[in-house]
Amino acid sequence: MKAVEPSEDAPFHKEDVLGALGRSLDAQFIELRRAMLSLANERERNLLAKFQSLSRWSRTYRRCPKCGTPLRMRISKSAAGCPSCSRIFYPTFSPVAITLVADPTDSFALLIRHKASPGGVYTAVAGFAQSGETLEECVRREIAEEVGIPAYGVVSLNRTQPWPMPDSSLMCAYYAVADMSHKIDACVVELESARWFSREEVAAALQRTLDDPSFKGLSKDVEDRQKLQYIAPHGAIAHYMIKAWVERLISATKHTQSRKGKLEASDDGKTSNHNYKIDIEFRNVENKITDKFLEHKSAELTGEEPSKQLGTRFGIELGEAVSH
């Protein structure tokens, strides 16, 4: 729904009209972001994201990009067809990698606070994937860009969330490891703070967020802006990720990458620890040897000389690193 902006000399205001309409429905209109963050039901949040995304797309996508003919929108707004060139267009969305970064001991988490966020509210590192880039590469790049440190041991948490702001996005949850010895160099354009916090500090902020989801107790003191007071609200995927880390449901030693590329929980501590050791072996390789390549080598390692030379070039022995 989009309210028409009344003229400046109109005898009423948009807020008055929305307020009256809301009261007639025994409800109220609230900001989209606030609704997404406060709705308890995940399906309701996803439906709201779908409604907003399709409504915005149908308002802006009016003409065929190829021939300029006005498009015929489906009633569902899920697609639009061109009567001239018979092409069908579908709503687009942007994949976003959001990552819970922990230290090798899994005792500390690296959280950030954006400039536009309330002081004292921290979340996970996130960023849009670029064309020709895998989500795993996006994870490492965004961590490097936002906090200035390399990351390794990237694994998918197999959880996503539709997010309608600023445009249609799909948040994809990841876990990664970074060494605390690296100096944090936060991007001053986007961030106001990026810090390592202990599990106890994060757990306290999580409990505070659960007890006070509206952030009524948030300190507005300038000195408290950099302190970890709250984490992202429960409507954000970052809340789930941080909560899962606090409760030790996700960690570098709880998952192992299968040969089919799916993230699987492992009850075998040796297997998981060995996989974690492999991640440490590769931490300086970064994007030069991709996760896709490693997956292929672990499944079909043949000892071919070119591949072995590639691994040796970066100071590792592929045959030893990926054998199970």
Automatic annotation (TrEMBL):
<keyword id="KW-0520">NAD</keyword>
<keyword id="KW-0479">Metal-binding</keyword>
<dbReference type="InterPro" id="IPR000086">
    <property type="entry name" value="NUDIX_hydrolase_dom"/>
</dbReference>
<keyword id="KW-0460">Magnesium</keyword>
<dbReference type="Pfam" id="PF00293">
    <property type="entry name" value="NUDIX"/>
</dbReference>
<dbReference type="GO" id="GO:0016787">
    <property type="term" value="F:hydrolase activity"/>
</dbReference>
<dbReference type="GO" id="GO:0046872">
    <property type="term" value="F:metal ion binding"/>
</dbReference>
<dbReference type="InterPro" id="IPR049734">
    <property type="entry name" value="NudC-like_C"/>
</dbReference>
<protein>
    <recommendedName>
        <fullName>NAD(+) diphosphatase</fullName>
        <ecNumber>3.6.1.22</ecNumber>
    </recommendedName>
</protein>
<dbReference type="InterPro" id="IPR015797">
    <property type="entry name" value="NUDIX_hydrolase-like_dom_sf"/>
</dbReference>
<dbReference type="InterPro" id="IPR020084">
    <property type="entry name" value="NUDIX_hydrolase_CS"/>
</dbReference>
<feature type="domain" description="Nudix hydrolase">
    <location>
        <begin position="91"/>
        <end position="219"/>
    </location>
</feature>
<keyword id="KW-0378">Hydrolase</keyword>
